[in-house]
Amino acid sequence: NAGVTQTPKFRILKIGQSMTLQCTQDMNHNYMYWYRQDPGMGLKLIYYSVGAGITDKGEVPNGYNVSRSTTEDFPLRLELAAPSQTSVYFCASSYSAENQPQHFGDGTRLSIL
Amino acid sequence: GQNIDQPTEMTATEGAIVQINCTYQTSGFNGLFWYQQHAGEAPTFLSYNVLDGLEEKGRFSSFLSRSKGYSYLLLKELQMKDSASYLCAVVDSNYQLIWGAGTKLIIKP
Predict the structure, then answer these.
(1) What percent of chain A has pLDDT over 90?
(2) Mean pLDDT, chain A, integer
(3) Subunit contact A42:B95, Cβ cutoff 8 A
(4) Residue A41: predicted pLDDT
(5) A24 touches B at CB < 8 Å
(6) Is the pLDDT of residue A99 over 90?
(7) Residue of A99, A103, A106 for testing the chain B interface, max B β-carbons within 10 Å
(8) How many CB pairs under 8 A join A and B?
(9) Under DSSP, is residue B82 helix (H, G, I), strand (E, B) or coil?
(10) pLDDT tens, B73-90?
(11) Contacts of B91 in chain A (CB under 8 A)
């Protein structure tokens, strides 16, 4: 019963470094999402995908990139890390965008120093 | 713009009842979700409303009034494990979830 799996759970980066946050789901969901959550704030959508090969920008896409080569995997890439990207990142998936709940991974806690 | 308002923090007593309100102004409406998020953990699904009225699920109930742009989550027989943040999220006209900042619920013995 894996659901949505995110790696790593914690990471510290230096300013200007790059990294990829991994996300995989085993529920055969078409829809996948990346959010960031800052303290005391709601979830902000970074990117989403409605199926393999299709991605689109969310509310806060600047500084990030994604790809969706398979149904299962939806990695998030940070190219030039900045302190403003210090946050908790959640990956989620759902069967549809309308009336089906999103299932979340455990999150990646990222600090940029 | 799109806006979802929830109280920042609420305090209640173990065994009591608490109502967490959510008001929204969004471009279109295609449903409203409530999620629970314990500190340091991921959000988990609680309820979904798309039609007006009350949906009951055990100790938790959720109400929706689309004409008023209003929903509430009602928690009965509060337990210490209910201490968490409760997130309201609306599905807009583009079928994207717009999230409120969440209400931190503190349960006291």
Answers:
(1) 89
(2) 95
(3) no
(4) 84
(5) no
(6) no
(7) A99
(8) 48
(9) helix
(10) 999 999 999 999 999 999
(11) 97-99
The pLDDT of A66-78, averaged and rounded, is: 97
- Contact flag B91-A44 (C-beta cutoff 8 Å): no
HEC string of chain A equals CCCEEEECCEEEECCCCCEEEEEEECCCCCEEEEEEECCCCCEEEEEEEEECCEEEECCCCCCEEECCCCCCECCEEECCCCHHHCEEEEEEEECCCCCCCCEECCCEEEEEC
Nearest to A63 by CA among A41, A31, A86, A42: A86
Are the beta carbons of B95 and A40 separated by less than 8 Å?
no
Give the model confidence (pLDDT) of A15-47 as tens digits: 999 999 999 999 999 999 999 999 888 899 999
* B84 contact residues in A (CB cutoff 8 A): none
- For A103, phi then psi, to 5°, come to -105, 130
